[in-house]
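We modelled the chain as a single entity of 285 amino acids. Its sequence is:
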Amino acid sequence: HRQRNKNMSSVEKVALVPDGARKAYDGLDSEASRNFHDTKHVSKNTEMHQTEGGFLKPLIFGGLDGILTSFAIVAGAAGGSMPIPVVLVLGFSNIFADALAMGVGEFLSSKAENEWILSERQRENWEMENYPEGEIEEMIDIYENRGMSREDATQVITTMSKYKDFFVDIMMAEELALRVPEEDHKIESMKEGVVMFCSFATFGSLPLLGYVIIPALFPQSEEEVLFSAACVITGMVLFGMGCVKSNFSASHWFVCGLETLLLGGACATVAYTIGQFVDSLIAES
């Protein structure tokens, strides 16, 4: 199968590593790594890649963006002393409008990038048909610059050039640093857009749930209690998402969770401060 079109993020790259190889690397256990690969070759098993790696970026990015956007609205409204109905109207309408915009934007940007990469492949294919000697010479130069001898590079490239489609894909990766998308790239782009929308809308709704659930259970609750509940919920979700993200990176789960929590807290602080500042200006006027 052809590789996906995008230059994979670090999250996606780690997600494609087999579980046995990842555990061996995390423990710096060369013997376990050797045993994993020997067993794989003996049993003729295929490495168990996680094919969902491409959806990690829209899932995590959409979730973080959604919850931070929502909580920024809540914090700004609290800083501006807005009533609860206004917070809910602004919050939910903004979250779902932004979620739709983010989902559509993810689909269109992914589709546009795929189409551009395919147009570049058509150009490389045309150049290979009209002047193969020049393309082969370019690839030999690239491999030689990476440390291969001229003789070895010539032998390798000459062999690969016998297989045209394969060689064009290699040219795309080596010359342009682009991965050719799969044939169903439009469907994949649509899936990414749907994941982005659902993630943004779901996580973006969490800070607002306290303004809905708590007043229903405790009608006499004050606005400070509702805002505190939103802070707690948002903090827990941010820390949890950071911990989940650590499964696809080399960082410790606590460090990832704390980093995400602190960055989210900084965004909320800015929103709350601006809300208070604007409210004070309006009060003075």
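As a brief sanity check on the tokenised model: The chain has a mean pLDDT of 81. The longest helix spans residues 84-130.
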